Amino acid sequence: MGTTSFAAEVTDLYQSRTVISSQNEAERQRATATILQQVLIKVVGKQSTLAKKDLSGLLEQADQFVTHYAYERDPTLANQQLRLTFNEEALNQAISSMGLPIWHKSRPESVVWLVINNGNSQKVLGAEDENAAAYQAVQKAAQQLGLPVFFR
Asked: Is residue 1 part of a domain?
């Protein structure tokens, strides 16, 4: 039996963020390589594929790929975050020149049935439960991989 599969275009593949302690230039440059690694996982699709390559040269040049940066405050965190956006075309060219695959922006949507067992009761989490820790953990993991998910 087959089912129809739908694709969604992921729009934030070339941006990510990390917690930082200050807004000085040295801190931003240090964080840039970390954020680029996060973006590479979303674009390539597998951490294991990246682990097979020496990314040091690319990470040392990470600043060259940045098109926009912003400092943001997250009310749930004590620290601020640095959000970077990278140049899609230039980064794709660098990734391809290393012989790495690029996972297209159009990705299959995944349906998540998240059931929480509490003793004798069960609860299926849906979009209305977006403040639940388990819901947020799944959303964060999917976002880190560039996967579109929705809850049923």
From this structure: no
